[in-house]
Write a structure and sequence with these properties.
Elements lengths: L18 H20 L10 H25 L4 H6 L15 H15 L7 H17 L1 H9 L1 H9 L10
Helix pairs in contact: 1-4, 1-5, 2-4, 4-5, 5-6, 6-7
Length: about 170
């Protein structure tokens, strides 16, 4: 896949990568799941303490998603690193390799949890699978070619999505 959203001719990676298309796909999966949960999968609706648990987890994912996305997209100065072909490994990128994707994904998880339907949980796994496979075969391949061992070591230290350091 060749993307052309470059700011200068020496730039090795596209500025937006596959992000907008990938977020659209996982958002579409959420929408499909929600529509199914409201029509043919109503039997999965939870109540009582499970509803409270879904709400609590939803709030946790909502706040986490907003914070992770904000620090990745707004506070990281990532555009500068991309346009100058440098690998960013500090700030939020010391905790997650993909804070913008993780942030959006966490927000979508929160939305699905707020619908209180157990049948939406497999859609979270499906989104993870789509995100993981697409990133491995696109951005991670590009970054490995560009940064080599530095990127491989970074991958060993930092999780793809969940923002905590590996031991």
């Amino acid at each position: 896949m060749k993307l052309t959203n470059y700011q200068n001719r020496d730039q090795k990676l596209p500025l937006f990568g596959i992000g907008p298309a990938l977020i659209f796909v996982i958002a579409l999966l959420s929408l499909i799941g929600i529509l199914l949960s409201k029509t043919c999968m109503r039997g999965g609706n939870v109540s009582g303490s499970f509803r409270i648990l879904f709400n609590a987890l939803g709030i946790l994912f909502l706040l986490s998603g907003l914070l992770v996305w904000f620090f990745g997209a707004v506070k990281s100065d990532m555009d500068q690193y991309i346009t100058t072909n440098r690998l960013k490994t500090d700030g939020i990128f010391a905790y997650t390799r993909n804070p913008m994707y993780a942030g959006w994904w966490f927000l979508l998880i929160a939305i699905m949890l707020f619908f209180h339907n157990i049948w939406l949980l497999p859609f979270i796994f499906l989104q993870w699978l789509v995100l993981t496979l697409v990133l491995i075969f696109t951005e991670e391949t590009w970054l490995t070619k560009l940064y080599g061992e530095d990127y491989r070591h970074y991958c060993q230290r930092v999780n793809r999505f969940f923002p905590w350091k590996r031991k």
